[in-house]
Design brief:
alpha/beta, Rossmann fold, 9-stranded mixed beta sheet, two-stranded antiparallel sheet
């Protein structure tokens, strides 16, 4: 199988063949805003991709419009999932599309409930999340049991019709009791009823709080535009992503945290589906390597189970390139232990300068040089760490000298003018 190259700096070009290098292809790129992460790292990665599939998160539509034609000419299936303007997408994401077991239902419910960024640093009792997960699982299971062609829009509609009243003795009655009673008559011990009964036994005030918290999260994540997209377009097929050359562009907003919730829920489900697809094959690996490029990785919300996933990406032919502004940013999102786990599972680390003292101290220790040499590193300089190798201090890659880049840019500018 032919493998792509990875350009990380001047004179720093590496193979992505893990058997050849002995390293995984997970890369952390750390630089302050405007430090050159996109132009010197992400665009060269796009330029050098001819054989693997890519999932690319961007906040700048220019990159999508510039490279869609490029990948189409390379024989790629080009997917455009635009969460900022869903109507412009040529593909959709329906979380329910990938549910085939009870564990999938629980995983999806947990992904949604815990996607709310307000929960990241919360000290609240996990009981409330568990109760909300159980309620959402009941709604999902009910829709799967009763609808011929269910979508997550059906789950949202069902949730919208739910209201709770207090009955005698402090217990609750709901507008969905009749629906679930009909299910109970046919299958009283099914998963939907087990989850629903867990919710029904709650006291009125507790049930109201649980439902209120779930509604807040759902309203944060699922805008009316996203609800429409779920029902109107073809859905992303993760197995096709790993079976034929595909580039999936995911457009998000740097100023809308609700979109980050939805996208990180997408990533959690995508990683799970790719793992399970690889496990179903005799080789135990994906037919085509899948590389995920995450711009502004730590400005969104936490991806469920990501610290666990990244430790086994290599064996499934999955890799990630995480673009950060600082290590502190990553720690704020994932906590100290998980952020260390993420960094430790990236065999390549590119530091392009910044003002974050904690990051500078860590780099100075890795380089074994005084702090001021890192803190006042000249603009355009970068340090590349590769596991088992001495660090390389070089210049960031000057993509403006790349003939392919100049040709692609010229063609894009011509299209933009016409």
């Amino acid at each position: 199988m032919k493998m792509d190259r990875m350009i990380l700096g001047e004179g720093a070009v590496y193979s992505t063949n893990c058997n050849e290098t002995g390293l995984n292809n997970n890369v952390i790129v750390c630089a302050s805003s405007g430090g050159g992460k996109t132009m010197s790292i992400m665009e060269p990665r796009l330029l050098e991709t001819f054989h693997s599939s890519l999932v690319v998160t961007v906040t700048k539509r220019k990159l999508v419009n510039k490279y869609k034609t490029v990948f189409s000419k390379r024989g790629y299936n080009v997917l455009d999932l635009n969460f900022v303007k869903p109507i412009e997408s040529n593909i959709a994401y329906d979380p329910l599309e990938y549910v085939s077991s009870y564990s999938d239902i629980s995983f999806l419910s947990e992904s949604i409930v815990k996607a709310n960024p307000r929960k990241e640093n919360s000290t609240a009792d996990p009981y409330w999340d568990d109760a909300a997960i159980s309620l959402l699982s009941a709604l999902i299971a009910y829709v799967l049991m009763t609808e011929d062609k269910p979508t997550f829009a059906d789950v949202l509609k069902l949730n919208d019709t739910l209201s709770i009243k207090e009955s005698t003795g402090g217990s609750i009655t709901t507008t969905l009791d009749r629906k679930f009673n009909m299910v109970a008559q046919k299958s009283p011990t099914c998963f939907a009823m087990t989850c629903w009964n867990s919710f029904k036994v709650l006291p009125f005030k507790t049930a109201s709080c649980v439902y209120g918290a779930l509604n807040t999260t759902i309203d944060t994540i699922f805008s009316p535009e996203l609800r429409t997209m779920i029902t109107e377009k073809n859905k992303v097929n993760f197995e096709e992503l790993a079976s034929q050359k595909t580039v999936l562009f995911i457009s998000t907003s740097a100023v809308n945290p609700a979109l980050s919730c939805f996208i990180n829920m997408f990533y959690a489900q995508m990683f799970k589906q790719l793992f399970e697809f690889a496990e179903s094959l005799s080789s135990g690996t994906l037919p085509i390597p899948v590389s995920v490029l995450c711009d502004d990785f730590a400005t969104g919300s936490r991806i469920l189970n990501f610290p666990e996933y990244i430790s086994i990406f290599r064996e499934k032919q999955i890799s990630v390139m995480l673009l950060l502004q600082s290590e502190s940013q990553l720690e704020r999102m994932y906590g100290h232990e998980d952020s260390v786990t993420i960094i430790n599972n990236c065999d390549t680390y590119v530091y392009m300068g910044g003002m974050d003292l904690r990051t500078c101290r860590n780099i100075s220790e890795r380089l074994n040089v005084p702090l001021d040499e890192v803190l006042y590193m000249p603009l355009g300089k970068e340090v590349i760490f590769r596991r088992g190798q001495k660090p390389i201090i070089t210049q960031r890659y000057n993509v403006l000298t790349d003939k392919t880049y100049l040709e692609i840019t010229e063609q894009y500018e011509k299209r933009s003018r016409n």
